[in-house]
Amino acid sequence: MKLKLLLYSILFIFTADCFAEIPVHTFSIVARDPDTGEMGVAVQSHYFTVGPVVPWGEAGVGVVATQSLVDVSYGPLGLQLMKDGKTAEEALQALLSIDKGRDGRQVAMIDVNGNVAVHTGPKSIAAAGHQSGKNFSAQANLMANEKIWPAMAKAFENTKGELAERLLAALDAAQEAGGDIRGQQSAAILVVSGKKTGNFFTDHLVDLRVDDNPHPLQELRRLWNIQKAYRHLSKSDEFIEKKDLASAQKEYDAAIALYPDNDELPFWYALGIYKAGHQKEALEIFQKIFAKDRAWYELIDRLPASDLLPAADVPKIKAVGPK
């Protein structure tokens, strides 16, 4: 174990030398859902493209938020230490012990078992602080006031729903309490599975970023709603395969409610129910889509070559298109 820690020390120093300190002053939250095992990080900052810098996570391992005078290596090395069996507290203390710049760091970690660790260095720019609770930690620096992290903690604890919703609620509460004294610019949210499958899209449940926007939290929530819409569409496809059109319709309606101005969702839903034998309903949807944008009408011709539609059905569908 001592040899491994020595190797980490060398790697930490090497990694730190590769990255200049990045002044990502911000507010963030790390958390775990004890019911699903999901772990997540959410962050907002007046700093361009905060997403690649602050939030780190690995399914079945844990998540990390590294901020203030950021040493990015806390992310990958913290995850590696937790992957090797250290708790979040042990991982954080191991890295702090070899970091000469620790007084300017703000770092939070949570491991797959829900252990929480957080450090706010005394040289973090005020207002700076953190508040931890069961399965979460909220932290912030360079804030307008000291109400930010308590507001985040309260919002997270009082919000119902899946982990991503609770993380976004915490960010909204921070902004409502005053937020970053400099204003807003970028935001990100990352949620990983509690169990590692090796499939990126299964392990990374949410991975959304807003790099530069005057209202990044509004944009982040808009993107989250779009992701939820596509989730409903995927569930709709599953019900179509099971010949359960009623359930498929319910999921499709939920998707459209979240993302009403996109033709992608109704097109593929119509294609699915058409092939499932519900041609009348499908043709009504196709007709509306074709009337709005001829590109979808032309796309029908290309589907047979990809085995997505029998060639014999192409004329039937195109018959409801523009004359």
Write the topology of this structure:
Elements: H1 2-18, E1 22-24, E2 26-32, E3 39-45, E4 55-58, E5 62-70, H2 74-83, H3 88-96, E6 105-111, E7 116-120, E8 129-133, E9 136-140, H4 148-158, H5 163-176, E10 186-192, H6 200-203, E11 204-210, H7 216-241, H8 245-258, H9 264-275, H10 279-292, H11 294-299, H12 314-318
Antiparallel strand pairs: 1-5, 2-3, 2-9, 3-10, 4-5, 5-6, 6-7, 8-9, 10-11
Element-level helix/strand string:
HEEEEEHHEEEEHHEHEHHHHHH
Number of domains: 2
Residue runs with pLDDT of under 50 for 5 or more positions: 5-20
Rg of Cα set: 24 Å
What name is given to the CATH topology of the largest domain? Glutamine Phosphoribosylpyrophosphate, subunit 1, domain 1
**Gap between N and C termini:** 74 Å
Relative strand content: 15-25%
Q: Given the C-alpha coordinates, what overall shape results?
A: elongated
Mean pLDDT: 93
CATH architecture of the largest domain: 4-Layer Sandwich
The CATH superfamily of the largest domain is known as Aminohydrolase, N-terminal nucleophile (Ntn) domain
CATH class of the largest domain: Alpha Beta
Looking across the biggest beta sheet, what order are the strands in? Answer: 8-9-2-3-10-11
Most strands sheet: 6 strands, antiparallel
Number of beta strands: 11
- Secondary-structure-based class equals alpha+beta
Tally of contiguous helical segments: 12
**Helix proportion of residues, in percent?**
40-55%
Structure description:
- The chain is α+β, with helices and mostly antiparallel strands and 323 residues long.
- The protein has 2 domains: 2-214, Glutamine Phosphoribosylpyrophosphate, subunit 1, domain 1 (4-Layer Sandwich), CATH 3.60.20.10; 228-318, Serine Threonine Protein Phosphatase 5, Tetratricopeptide repeat, CATH 1.25.40.
- Helices cover 44% and strands 20% of the residues.
- The protein is built from 12 helices and 11 strands.
- A 6-stranded antiparallel beta sheet has the order 8-9-2-3-10-11.
- Helix 2 crosses helix 3 (88-96).
- The longest helix is centred in the last third of the chain and has 26 residues, at 216-241.
- The N and C termini lie far apart (74 Å).
- Residues 5-20 have low confidence and may be disordered.
